[in-house]
Specification:
Strand content: 5-15%
Structural class: mainly alpha
Strand order of the largest sheet: 1-2
Shape: rod-shaped
Distance between the termini: 89 Å
Helix content: 55-70%
Radius of gyration: 49 Å
């Protein structure tokens, strides 16, 4: 047992005492290389701090969170880009289908309008033609004799009526009407073109306008023979030129 001094009253006390008998100050002993050091328990003891480890943890956590955020942003960007490519390709497919259907309907319309012009002309001018005679010429048996006679119809409207009442013509006109309905629906789907498809959208609209004029003339011939013939020629020319432009500016599909 050794004697030590109290930190408060500096009286000598036993180093085994828990507190000073004189002042009651709690006693704690620290052993140092230089000897025994007296320390009261109410003094601040060294604080063992984890701030350094906390800081590292915050840094690691922040980096991990940043990587997660970046990953989410990249994933969203990739998804959106894929959707844009997919939508663009669907748009191009719709354009190609609309162009094909208009070409098909336009071809039928050209056939009907050209035949209408020939029937109209041959009926007025009494021209015999193997492609129009069944519409422009009336065959009858006068007085129920043993022979028949053939003569041109007096009114070209009767010839045109024969043409449009013909079974083959009726089927063609029905095809044109059905084609018009399909094309109209596709054109509605082509509104709001995606980026990069603005020019082809303008071109397909021009083709659609020319197609509409031509198919309307095929279904509903009107005016005089001269005005009808001029309208048909103009519509066919505009339609052909519009189709060529569509082919020239049609974008290619993007690989996904």
């Amino acid at each position: 047992m050794a004697l030590i001094k109290c930190n408060e009253c500096e009286k000598e006390i036993s180093d085994m005492a828990a507190s000073c008998p004189g002042c009651g100050c709690p006693i704690k002993i620290q052993t140092m290389d230089s000897g025994i050091v007296l320390q009261s328990e109410d003094e601040d003891l060294p604080d063992i701090s984890f701030s350094k480890y906390k800081k590292k943890a915050w840094i690691i956590g922040g980096v991990a969170l940043l990587l997660v955020i970046v990953g989410i942003i990249v994933s969203v960007f990739i998804y959106q880009r894929r959707e844009e490519i997919r939508n663009f390709n669907v748009y191009i497919e719709t354009l190609e289908l609309a162009s094909f259907l208009m070409l098909t309907g336009g071809s039928d319309a050209e056939t009907i309008t050209n035949l209408t012009r020939r029937v109209w002309n041959n009926s007025i001018r009494n021209i015999s033609d193997s492609s129009t005679n069944r519409f422009t010429i009336r065959i009858y048996n006068p007085a129920r004799t043993s022979y028949t006679r053939a003569e041109f119809l007096d009114d070209f409207n009767d010839a045109l009526a024969n043409l449009f009442n013909d079974r083959e013509t009726t089927r063609t006109v029905t095809r044109i009407r059905d084609n018009q309905a399909l094309v109209n629906n596709l054109i509605d789907d082509l509104h709001n073109p995606p980026d990069g498809a603005e020019r082809i959208y303008d071109a397909i609209l021009d083709m659609f306008l020319a197609y509409s004029r031509l198919t309307d003339l095929a279904i509903n011939p009107r005016g005089s023979l001269q005005s009808f013939s001029e309208d048909v020629s103009t519509s066919i020319s505009e339609f052909v030129n519009a189709h060529r432009l569509v082919q020239a500016v049609m974008p290619t599909r993007i690989e996904e």
